[in-house]
């Protein structure tokens, strides 16, 4: 868990990639170009949080997770 938290704090590009991969894992479906907007919303929710580990929580609350 510490390593995951460290990855989420490091770099915006890594955080975006992590969000995309976790979304694929959570939904069981590939992330399409049309999913970019929702992934950006997920990232915005995680950025607003004091804890970057909020990324997983934001994914679970996203429309992608609930509707894919």
How many strands appear in the DSSP assignment?
A: 0
Overall average residue pLDDT: 81
H/I helix tally:
5
Helix amount, in percent?
over 70%
Task: Show the helix and strand layout.
Layout lengths: L1 H9 L1 H16 L8 H13 L5 H8 L1 H5 L1
Describe this entry's structure for a reader.
The chain has 68 residues and is an all-alpha fold. It is 75% helix and 0% strand. The chain contains 5 helices and no strands. Helix 1 crosses helix 2 (12-27), helix 2 packs across helix 3 and helix 3 (36-48) packs across helix 4 (54-61).
Q: Could you give a quick summary of the protein structure above?
A:
With 68 residues, the chain is mostly helical.
Provide keyphrases for this structure.
68 residues; mainly alpha; 75% helix
């Amino acid at each position: 868990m510490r390593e995951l938290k460290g990855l989420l704090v490091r770099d915006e590009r890594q955080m975006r990639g992590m969000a995309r991969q976790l979304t694929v894992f959570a939904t069981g479906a590939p992330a399409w170009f049309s999913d970019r907007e929702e992934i950006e919303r997920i990232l915005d929710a995680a950025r607003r949080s004091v804890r970057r580990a909020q990324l997983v929580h934001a994914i679970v609350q996203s429309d992608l997770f609930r509707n894919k």
